[in-house]
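Reply to dn_fold:

You asked what the input looked like. This is it:
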Amino acid sequence: MKLGAWPLPYVRVKCSKCDREGRLSKDGRIERFGPDREMFVVREKLTEPSCKRPDKKQPCQSVLPDGLLVQAITAKNDDEIIDKRLTAEAKKWREEQK
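and this is what came back:
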């Protein structure tokens, strides 16, 4: 998914190796990376340089914790939602975007 299509007003990244977590505005990330940058590249650019993992030879283990919520929000119908527990929250986000 491209950054411009990310439906949330923020981008949250977390590293499972060093437990660092941050929440940044989507608009600020678009200014920095552009709307056509892939989210996985954005995630890496945000975390890799400052990751506090003990072994720098190992890759940063950052994730987009809201990835399943975004999948639920962008699903064409409720049957496509991977984590059904997110259905109600996804519907709320979809309504707010209208």
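The mean pLDDT is 90.
Hope that clears it up.
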